[in-house]
Amino acid sequence: MEELHEEKQGKAKKERTPMPEQPAEERIKNFSEVALGYSKEDALAEASRCLSCKDPKCVEGCPVNVDIPGFIKLVSEENFEEAIEKIKATNTLPAICGRVCPQETQCEALCVLGKKGQPVAIGRLERFCADYEREKGVKDPEAMTPTGKKVAVVGSGPAGLTAAADLAKLGHKVTIFESLHKAGGVLSYGIPEFRLPKEIVRQELEYIKKLGVEVKPNYIIGRIKTLDELCDDFDAVFLGTGAGLPNFMGIEGENLNGVYSANEFLTRVNLMKAYDPEYDTMVRHGKHVLVVGGGNVAMDAARSALRLGAEEVSIVYRRGEDEMPARREEIEHAKEEGIIFRLLTNPVHILGDEKFNVTGVECIKMELGEADKSGRRSPVPVEGSEFLVPADVVVIAIGTSPNPIIFKGSEGLEQNKRGTVVADEETGATSKCGVFAGGDVVTGAATVISAMGAGKKSAKAIDEYLKEK
Amino acid sequence: MAYKILEKEEIAPSVHRMIIDAPDIAKAAKAGQFIILRIDERGERVPLTIADFEKETGKVAIIFQEMGKSTKQLAKLSAGDFLEDFVGPLGNPADVRKLGTVILVGGGVGVAPIYPQAKAYRSAGNKVISIIGARNKDLLLLEEEMREASSELYIATDDGSKGQHGFVTDILKKILDSGEKVARVVIVGPPIMMKVGTGVASPYDVEIIVSLNSIMVDGTGMCGGCRVMVDGETKFTCIDGPEFDARKVDFVQLMNRLAMYRGEEAKAVEKYEEECRCGLH
Ligand SMILES: Cc1cc2nc3c(=O)[nH]c(=O)nc-3n(C[C@H](O)[C@H](O)[C@H](O)COP(=O)(O)OP(=O)(O)OC[C@H]3O[C@@H](n4cnc5c(N)ncnc54)[C@H](O)[C@@H]3O)c2cc1C
Ligand code: SF4
Ligand code: FES
């Protein structure tokens, strides 16, 4: 009996509890969330796999050092309320991070179980706890004693939202300025509904407003007011303006009709709901769609195009699958949905017809060349291997740079060559007095969790700065 | 957020002027800049040039012609109604300096954007010669305002029902030929008019500036939908423009890109008008 039990448990420990999902053939017809979330039973089974390591490696892999074994233990004790409290002690947006963090390169990459088998599904458990809390109704925050200090936060992505929430909790009066009509940054305009339901983002925003944070949409710093003017009006400023300026490849035919930046395509589809006929937003619904890039953005664009009714969607990426920066899960989901992966391939030239509409993309095969100094083998074109991929929509998802609008009309903010803001890694302090920065505007396009972590560090540093001021 | 419509007036058949209560924008606005509005949650983001603004009262004026579904819907709103979103000022301000003599050319609803420029160039100490035009006299906009704002005003109509029979570009050529020393020509209007105007003025020793009206989403450099070819390089109209050196603009590409959603737009208008007939709006 005893033995059997152990064997069962041993087996259970090896296998990760699968995530319930919408079947691929169903989900490509809708924009609803793909991963449905663990049931209580799933969560308990998965939590029981954790060894509660004395020296937990997973925590080191987490950019904000969530007490992972701590919260998982509480889950296994069915104490979900305290479990979510434990996560929220360091992670402000667990419902979001549980869904979009690249766990396989962070916490789960270092989990000891991963050495021999599959790591604990930390992200799924995190999501479960956050969803549990949301379904039950999040408690309203308690009123804080006001410090009388005013802080401006520019940008309402994960960096700005986190900084704002933490500063408000410390009693500072926070105003968020957002240039778009809706707050949330990439969470609202970039990441699609089927990966991150906008209702979750809305509820996080509600909570932040309950903390007393004022959110001003349609308010562009650099146009309505300069950064210098903000500095005069507020005691401190946090810049979380992200990296929202799309890069193009500079190849022929890139301005043809039907060629989009991923930002434009995703903004039209997600933020402006082009998939919903009740909305006025226009977007080309391509039959043959080609997406250039290998990150989350490329996966999101490809899968959105598929859901808009494309017959064939392919991703063109100049390196191999292992080099793709996208989350593993998104790559898997994309494949299940029938997205074609054209790896070690690069577009050279986009073709169009006499009406200026895109008709196809000439691509070239790539091979990995000699390793460079960093040991990375960069792809080089294979001569004479050009071939044509027909396409009526092309989406370019090859990266973004910080948006320069924020710098208009103000001085003294040091930037480096790539246009990112130079900021202290620990505090986010910039070269301009009273101005702190964090997230993609400092790092270039990165992750939700790193932006959130930067917002947290800056909030602490701003609080100290305000005390000394 | 909601932005109140303070006044609305039909200033020509299917052309409307609206005054919006937007104090932050009024305070920051400069001639040559634009706004983006959204009527409601389901609406498109519509870019429109700021036709006038008053810092003291916080009023911002826009002028639009009923064209697509959104502008038709906008035309149905009245004073007292609200717009869901109204964001700006967007784009770089017009490069207004004291230059001497400046010719401003505006055609159709393009007269609206040159009105604030005429005022700005005039108060910067320039001699402002304005040439405005329309298909016929009923469609001619802002004649009185433009007369007041300009040192000289010329009018052209396609059918000759007012001013000179012909195009604004004909008058432009005449003035440039007259030998008057002109420092700059600013042309705003339909792309074809800007293209023709640029062709007319190019042989003369004069700076030519056009203000482009690309398709836009955000107006802040985020989407690249507004990209145009200028001097062989891709530029974003919303952050690099909207003003560009006319001689360097690829107008053919601009016109092609503006046609991107023509089919979809026609369908949207048809659907909207059908719904209106059924009393849905
Ligand atoms: C399609 C897509 C998918 C992604 N998927 C993932 C994923 O699965 N996992 C992951 O970890 N990361 C993902 N990322 C990356 C991640 O979203 C970003 O790293 C993160 O959002 C950066 O946060 P941020 O707060 O620095 O900036 P952002 O989220 O970019 O927010 C910046 C905000 O500032 C506003 N702003 C900019 N300039 C001004 C101004 N002058 N005045 C006022 N407001 C201004 C912008 O409108 C924007 O709302 C994805 C990104 C994209 C585009
Ligand atoms: S490393 Fe893995 S097994 Fe160890 S505590 Fe972290 S999640 Fe649990
Ligand atoms: S309108 Fe989006 S970049 Fe110009």
What is the element layout, followed by pairings?
The complex is a heterodimer of chains A (469) and B (281).
Chain A lengths: L1 H13 L9 H4 L12 H8 L9 H5 L6 H9 L3 H9 L5 H7 L6 H4 L2 H4 L5 H15 L13 E5 L3 H12 L3 E5 L8 H4 L8 H13 L3 E3 L10 H7 L2 E4 L5 E2 L12 E3 H10 L16 E5 L3 H12 L4 E5 L11 H9 L3 E3 L2 E8 L5 E14 L5 E5 L5 E4 L2 E4 L3 E2 L33 E3 L2 H4 L4 H21 L1
Parallel strand pairs in A: 1-2, 1-4, 2-3, 4-16, 6-14, 7-8, 7-14, 8-9
Antiparallel strand pairs in A: 5-15, 10-11, 11-12, 11-13
Helix pairs in contact in A: 3-5, 5-6, 5-10, 6-10, 7-10, 11-19, 15-16
Chain B lengths: L2 E10 L2 E7 L1 H6 L5 E5 L7 E9 L4 E7 L3 H7 L6 E2 L1 E6 L10 E7 L3 H13 L3 E8 L8 H7 L2 E6 L6 E2 L2 H10 L6 E5 L2 H11 L5 E5 L15 E4 L2 E4 H4 L2 E3 L5 H8 L3 H16 L4
Parallel strand pairs in B: 8-9, 8-12, 9-10, 10-11, 12-13
Antiparallel strand pairs in B: 1-2, 1-6, 2-5, 3-4, 3-7, 4-5, 13-16, 14-15
Helix pairs in contact in B: 5-6
The site of FE2/S2 (inorganic) cluster has 13 residues of chain B, from helix 7.
Describe the structure.
The complex is a heterodimer of chains A (469) and B (281). Chain A is globular. In chain A, the strands form 4 sheets. In chain A, strands 3-2-1-4-16 form a 5-stranded parallel beta sheet, sandwiched between helices. A 5-stranded parallel beta sheet of chain A has the order 6-14-7-8-9. Residues 1-12 of chain A have low confidence and may be disordered. In chain A, β1 (150-154), α11 (158-169) and β2 (173-177) form a beta-alpha-beta unit. Chain A contains 19 helices and 16 strands. Chain A is 36% helix and 16% strand. Chain B is an alpha/beta fold and 281 residues long. Chain B folds into 3 domains: 3-90, Elongation Factor Tu (Ef-tu), domain 3 (Beta Barrel); 101-211, 3-Layer(aba) Sandwich (Rossmann fold), CATH 3.40.50; 216-239 and 248-281, no CATH class. Chain B is 29% helix and 32% strand. Chain B has helices at 23-28, 69-75, 111-123, 143-149, 168-177, 191-201, 237-240, 251-258, 262-277; strands spanning 3-12, 15-21, 34-38, 46-54, 59-65, 82-83, 85-90, 101-107, 127-134, 152-157, 164-165, 184-188, 207-211, 227-230, 233-236, 243-245. In chain B, the strands form 3 sheets. Chain B has a 7-stranded antiparallel beta sheet with strand order 6-1-2-5-4-3-7, with helices on both faces. In chain B, strands 11-10-9-8-12-13-16 form a 7-stranded mixed beta sheet, with helices on both faces. In chain B, strands 14-15 form a two-stranded antiparallel sheet. In chain B, β4 and β5 (59-65) form a beta hairpin. In chain B, α5 (168-177) packs parallel to α6. Chain B starts with a strand and ends with a helix. Chain A binds chain B through residues 179-181, 216-220, 223-225, 244-246, 248, 250, 254-255, 257-258, 260-261, 263-264, 267-268, 272-273, 278-282, 355-356, 403-405, and chain B through 1, 24-25, 27-28, 38, 42-45, 69-70, 84-90, 217-218, 220-225, 227-229, 234, 239, 253, 256-257, 259-261, 264-265, 268. Residues 100-102, 154-160, 177-180, 185-186, 190-191, 220-222, 240-242, 244, 266, 296-297, 300, 327, 403, 405-406, 439-441, 445-449, 451 of chain A line the site of flavin-adenine dinucleotide. Iron/sulfur cluster (SF4) binds at residues 50-53, 56-58, 68-69, 72, 111-113, 119-120, 122 of chain A.
